[in-house]
Amino acid sequence: AQSVTQLDSQVPVFEEAPVELRCNYSSSVSVYLFWYVQYPNQGLQLLLKYLSGSTLVKGINGFEAEFNKSQTSFHLRKPSVHISDTAEYFCAVSPSGYSTLTFGKGTMLLVSP
Amino acid sequence: EPEVTQTPSHQVTQMGQEVILRCVPISNHLYFYWYRQILGQKVEFLVSFYNNEISEKSEIFDDQFSVERPDGSNFTLKIRSTKLEDSAMYFCASSVSQGYNEQFFGPGTRLTVL
To answer: Which of A32, A36, A44, A50 is nearest to A94 (CA)?
Structure first.
């Protein structure tokens, strides 16, 4: 079984500041890793995913994440956030080759001017 | 751009009533999923569906739940006798195939059981 921990339920940040949203996972098998974003009243949208290969993954909207196997982490980063990045961000894992996603509780990113 | 749609956006029902949540997956996708999110909790996997049968289900997906693809476009989740604890946001998702392919999510149906 897999589990995902997002320790920060809310991260307030000022516009143009850098941000890191933390995600740790546990699994007895190899996994794929994902970050999804949910804007108000919308569905979950894939930001980026790690399947294999380079541990630094670049996604949409200037976000990137780094897979760290030894620390079982997949933290999401953006060097300069915009007001429009205000949303809820979900980290998720699935066993390699399978579809079932296990999500974290989500982190609400609040960007203020 | 193709998208997953869900209806209704909000459903209010009395405890013990049956509800059907509807989803229209992206047309060339073959795998379909339901997830739910109870307020303040994690998004949880309920069931996956492929080739007109359930391919995987979680412990949450008990006998009161069922899924169906009644025609070539709709994918439904039925809750036979709703309980208060079924109140949640229900997300439908679809993917081209399983594994590394992205799951595309709908906007969700908020179910409120009174």
So the answer is: A32
How far is the C-alpha of A26 from the C-alpha of B92, rounded, in Å? Answer: 25
Query: Using one digit for the tens of pLDDT, what is the confidence trace for A34-76?
Result: 999 998 877 889 999 998 888 999 999 999 999 999 999 999 9
Distance between CA B67 and CA A79 in Å, rounded?
A: 43
Average pLDDT, chain B: 92
Phi, psi angle pair for B52, to nearest 5°:
65, 25
Tell me: the pLDDT tens digits for B46-90? 999 999 999 999 999 999 999 999 887 899 999 999 999 999 999
Judge: B99–A98 Cβ closer than 8 Å, yes or no. yes
Chain A environment of B100 (Cβ under 8 Å)? 32, 49, 51, 97
Cα B88 to Cα B85: distance, rounded to the nearest angstrom: 8
* Chain Cα centroid distance, residue A90: 5
A50/A30 Cα distance (integer angstroms): 11
How many CB pairs (< 8 A) connect A and B? Answer: 60
From CA B64, how far away is CA B19, in angstroms rounded? 11
List B residues 49-88 in contact with A (Cβ-Cβ < 8 A): 56, 58
Pick from A14, A24, A4, A26: nearest CA to A75: A24
Q: Give the residue carrying structure tokens 């979900």.
A: A90
- Which amino acid is located at A42 in the chain? Q
